[in-house]
Automatic annotation (TrEMBL):
It is found in: Cytoplasm. NCBIfam families: DivI1A_domain. The keyword RNA-binding does not apply. It comes from Nakamurella antarctica. This is Cell wall synthesis protein Wag31. Residues 179-200 have a biased composition (Basic and acidic residues). The lineage of its organism: Bacteria, Bacillati, Actinomycetota, Actinomycetes, Nakamurellales. Coiled coil: none annotated. Pfam families: DivIVA. It comes from the Bacteria.
Amino acid sequence: MRLTPAEVHNVAFKKPSIGKRGYDEDEVDAFLDLVEDELARLIELNNELTSRLAAFESGQTPPPREVAPEPAAPVELVKQPSEPEPEAVVAQPAAPAEPTFQAGGDSHIQAAKLLGLAQQTAERLTADAAQEANETLTTARAESERLLAEAHAESERLVTEATSHSETMVTEATALAEATERDSRVKAESMDRESQRKYTEVMTQLTTQRTALEQKIDDLRTYERDYRSRLRGWITEQLEQLDGSNDGPETEQ
């Protein structure tokens, strides 16, 4: 698959989701700009050499002068160190060997070699750039999947901890409520027993006092009857004595 500068220029990578890590966008864009410029330069050089070769073969120009394509500048892609990421990827295509022309009839061969070398260099750089982009995408995708798995695991852990904590709180609250209810029931039963005991004690005292009062009333009634009987006997006796004393003088007369 051939790659053009326009395709390199228009390539767009998906941005990572919020909270996920990825390659620095500015560095990726800078790397793609370098790839685009180098690819355009090599294509331009390839076209120039092709034109010279065609002109030379048609006899319109003298044999080409000795030229050597400028070695491609090394391109580095360094990732941000803020988060643990895969190691920085450094792409440094090897500089093409400098061909030299030989005088005489070998100029056609040298031009063809130069053209082939330029084309190979362009294809190699294109392949390296595509491979680098694929590796970048693969690494970013793997990192995204790893972060997603970690986030999912962390979410499950938090949910598990929250559920366990909630169940513990519910269990403790239930136990506390049961203990409070049990204590309240025990206290209520104790208060009921105490109230019943005091009621029984008071009623017993009242019954005893009532019995004593009734006995005292009976004693007073008995005393009243005896007193009345003795009083009646004494009055009768006094009346009899008075009657006897009145009968005596009348008899003597």
